[in-house]
From TrEMBL:
Protein name: ABC-type glycerol-3-phosphate transport system, substrate-binding protein
Signal peptide from the UniProt entry: 1-18
PANTHER family: ARABINOSE-BINDING PROTEIN-RELATED, DIACETYLCHITOBIOSE BINDING PROTEIN DASA
Keyword list, A-Z: Signal
Taxonomic classification: Bacteria, Pseudomonadati, Spirochaetota, Spirochaetia, Spirochaetales
Amino acid sequence: MKKIALLAMSAMCVLALAGCSKSKGPSAAALKAAENGDYSKLPVAKNPATKKAYDFGGMAVTIYDWWSNPDAPAASKAEEDQRAYRKYLEETYNFTLIQDNLNAGWGGHPAEVANYCITGGDDARIFIIDGRSAFSGLAANLWADVSKTPDIDWTKKKWNKAVLGVMPGKSFAVGMPEPRHCLFFNKRVLQENGFDPDEPYNLQKEGKWTWETFEEMCAALTKDTDNDGIIDQYALSGFNGEFAWPTIYSNGGRIVNVDSNGKYYLDMSDNVLEAWEYVRRIFVNYNKPAGEGANWDYFKADFLSGATAFYNNQEYDAQANGMLADMKDDWGMVCLPLGPKGDGKYFTLNQDNMLVIPSYYSQDKVNKIMKIYDFWSDDVPGYDDPDAWKEYYYSSFRDTRAIDETMQYMMDNSKSWNAWLIPGLNYAPLSWSICAGADVQETYESMKNELQATIDEVMNK
């Protein structure tokens, strides 16, 4: 029986195993021995430059984040096996690597990272960063170019492709991406209004979960139930920005785009404006309005109470401690519907943490650190179940289709996006205004200069 791979529980778990076995190299006997904890029969990797086994001369590398405790005991047999395998790698290739807390806290982490990358040091570091550091550090040339490191196979399934695409050549991570933007639906409400309770799943599986079919369902679910001339049943409890951003990408658009010269600009293409017109139409016609004195997040309570059929936000609402855990009605989860100008693939937007190496180091030192991480982050022999990540999620959902279908799409197609990474770029008022009914073109015209100025200040110097 195959062992179960370590689970990629969240964006913070960027160091989890990728869950795929090597396609060549170790013999069957060596792999069998390794599965039982004997790694001595595995072939030793050779440096293509020297034709000899890699030897890093005792280099000590530390990955710094804002949460780790390197002295914490292993939490599972899988983690014990991972530690044992990493110990073998350290002894075989003569290095050490630990993940530790920078002790600056979440709030102080970006400044500490920036300070080190500017002033430098004699040690060897990799930093885990998030959106607060990524593009500001990129603009300041703080991140090394790891694409120059020889003998790294970037096609391995362990690499988080969305993170690789955020800052190409600079950012990296391993493990499954964290699922994000999605659309939840109430099965009882759908059934009581004449739909198959799994209709969104069925349409998604057939590739027919599109703007058009979603709007048709919204129109049927929004009605005057007592014939008094006032709409009293609405289809959607909508979170405007969390609906708008993936909808733009579903139509082949971007919030912020990059031209052929590497210049960042506010995307006002036809695809983007078409997406905004659609978003506006959905929110004006089918989104349940706030009652008098309601909190900003009133729409969450409306969905929980069964007042609407659909609710959009992010997958974390479905987790064990999320808002949907105690919902009375059964619910499901699908990706946002596809626009007419997109690539036809269901997806989620990626906001995972990233790893970077300081550009302060020489390229030779960067190469050594990156190759050490490549070894250290490889799969533990025997942990080869590509579906192991699903086990973590099954207990949080009311059905398996949310994981086997929707989340599989998300894992297969987690899209990089950049607007959330640009410091000071406040694009949220676009969704506030347009979802409240403002004219799309006029809204963009009124905000574009300020938004572009912020983009230029950070990214186009």
